[in-house]
Amino acid sequence: MCGIFGCVLSEGSAAPIIHRALERLEYRGYDSVGEATVYGGRVHVKKAAGKIGEIHKLLNLDDLPGSVGIGHTRWATHGKPSDRNAHPLFDCKENVAVVHNGIIENYQELKDMLIEKGHSFISDTDTEIIPHLIEENISLGLEKAVMEAVRKFEGRYAIAAISSDENMLVGVRRGSPLIVGRSENKTFIASDIPAFLNHTNQVMYLDDNEMVVIDGNVRFFNTETGQSIEKRLITINWDAKQAEKGEYPYFVIKEIMEQKETIMRAINQDENTILRTAEEIKRAYGTFFTGCGTAGKVCMAGEYIFSKVAKKHVNFVISSEFPNYKHFLTDKTLLITISQSGETADLMEAVETARKMGVKVLSLVNVMGSSLYRNSDYAFLLNAGPEKAVASTKATTAQLALVTLLAYAVAGRLQEGKRLLMETASKVNDMLNPRYEARIAELARKLKDSQSIYIIGRSLNYPMAMEAAIKIMELSNIHAQGFAGGELKHGPLALIQDGTPCIVFAANDETRVDIISNAMEVKARGGYIIGVSPRNNEVFDYWIKVPDVGNASPVVNIIPIQILAYHLALLRGCDPDYCRNLAKSVTVK
Ligand code: AGP
Predict the structure, then answer these.
(1) Of 490, 487, 424, 428, residue with least CA distance to 455
(2) CATH, domain 251-432, list 1.10.10.10, 3.40.50.20, 3.40.50.10490, 3.90.70.10
(3) Is the pLDDT of residue 156 over 80?
(4) 562 Cβ partners below 8 Å, 6+ apart?
(5) How far does the centroid of ligand 1 lie from the alpha carbon of residue 293, in Å?
(6) Cα 392 to averaged position of ligand 1 atoms, centre (Å)
(7) More confidently predicted of 216 and 41
(8) Whose CA is nearest to atom 8 of ligand 1?
(9) Which CATH class is domain 3-243?
């Protein structure tokens, strides 16, 4: 949610590097783009509303002088997308430029104070108070002025600042991600590692209330105490190619196809760690799953999988609602969090709430070094590689596979679980072939003009029905809703008319007879039934075959719907990577 970037080069021009980095960060927001550099005692800027490709054609983002600069790609919170609200934002004299990801909660109060002191504002953003606050003390130098300024803000943010008089870049983090990358003669800060991965895989993580000052050197400080901090350089095992589209037209289809390998990578965990974690889960008194959006649906599936496989009740609460459950937390509680980015604000707030009550945190997360990864007592990496498309696909199935493996470990049947998931991974590999995609593309052509698409499932596949709805909505902008099969007759059947599409997850398990009956009820009211199932059935108007993988059925059922949603997006002229009004890595509450 907003991507920020900054770099200091020992020689050469920063602008082309900022431009490329912003392209790689575009998945975090695509409302506006901007960059600023320092050269000849001035700050130079280019910025506008719109997508980076269009803006580059208009403004040539490679053409700014100087070897120190910052950049921003925006997902609007305060102030609508416009040239005026595009970052970087400036102080009164345009000597200080700032990019920001997050929200300054007390901005109105600070703005009023600054206006009273004679500052004038031109944007509707909360961000603009930052350069003006820095301006207040800029005579002390950028480093000190930023330190003074951030002590006045409240909220979650990451910022990067430059000023006209110093070849220096200052970054501060509190609640939103900020990572430093170092190569021999270039230093970077960014919201996410792929922004600079083509230059270096050597990184240092900023923690909350920490500031980095980059000039000839790189120095870190605690913003509350002012004390300097030592940081360790960490090597990241992602390579730049993994973060590129390669031969695919969009990230999302590349990531869908990568599921041929990522399920296997997710379960390839150290067995002793899995067994130790299983003991920890068994010992816990009160266990919660939490996550947001798609990861939340995986948590909900986890609740069912743990109940079915491990006979263990784990509560599921979506992260934004988790604080309501704080009265049930003790130092014996275990919180299991699931996240692709490891930066989602609602989830991080749930972790904070839990931590205050002495709760232990176990995480399943894709991004190494993310806030969640570093704030967990135990963390499993999903090993899915960078997921760039806003719609989560390969991280989802990696999460589902790992949750299933953990449930088998808790049941004392780790090897059985491993065999099942290895078989599932190999069947997904077979499934993801061009013929399979073509069959689903044909279905997309039939459904592309639908007003609504409904999805039903039972047990493990009820959460998958809800996840299928998220995929269809965010990718194709068709209204979609997932229901428990048994709930139809309590209300949703009223929505079914002649031709209303209804996707039915009919796994080969104890729920099959009932879900087929539910499908019959829809068909009897004119519904068009799409069966996602290992076996065909007379009720299906269109059958999408999936392998029979027992308790791993959620993993295989969601994949054809990911492909369907992608093809619906293409047919309806939606950008499959940049879903309308959304962004990857939701760092605001
Ligand atoms: C996924 O398709 C969605 N765009 C979204 O719901 C996402 O899963 C959610 O924001 C959680 O993100 P996280 O996994 O990075 O925490």
Answers:
(1) 487
(2) 3.40.50.10490
(3) yes
(4) 252, 256, 391, 393, 471
(5) 5
(6) 6
(7) 41
(8) 294
(9) alpha beta
Structure tokens at 70: 């910052």
Estimate to the nearest angstrom the gap between the alpha carbon of 163 and the chain centroid. 32
Within 6 A (CB) of ligand 1 lie 292-295, 339-341, 344, 347, 390-392, 470, 474, 582, 585-586
Strand order in 287-291's β-sheet? 315-318, 287-291, 334-339, 360-365, 378-381
How many whole angstroms separate alpha carbon 585 and alpha carbon 175?
A: 12
Closest CA to 532 of 256, 432, 512: 512
Residue nearest to atom 6 of ligand 1 (CA): 293
The per-residue pLDDT for range 162-200, each reduced to its tens digit, is 999 999 999 999 989 999 999 999 999 999 998 999 999
Contact criterion met (CB below 8 Å) for 378 and 405: no
Give 433-589's CATH code, choosing from 3.40.50.2300, 3.30.450.20, 3.30.565.10, 3.40.50.10490. 3.40.50.10490
Residue 324 CA, ligand 1 centroid: distance in Å: 21
Q: Between the CA atoms of 559, 347, 188 and 30, what dihedral angle is there, to the nearest 10 degrees?
A: 60
Kindly list the domain boundaries of the chain, sorted by start residue.
3-243, 251-432, 433-589
Scan for tokens 């719109």, then name that residue: 50
Cα 57 to ligand 1 centre (Å): 31
**The two domains 251-432 and 433-589 share their CATH topology (first three levels equal):** yes
Give 453-492 pLDDT, tens digit per residue.
999 999 999 999 999 999 999 999 999 999 999 999 999 9
Q: Please identify, by atom number, the ligand 1 atom nearest to the C-alpha of residue 291.
A: 16
Which positions are annotated as active-site residues? 2, 584
- Structure token pair of residue 369: 């070094």
Going by C-alpha positions, the residue among 111, 114, 117 that lies closest to residue 78 is 111
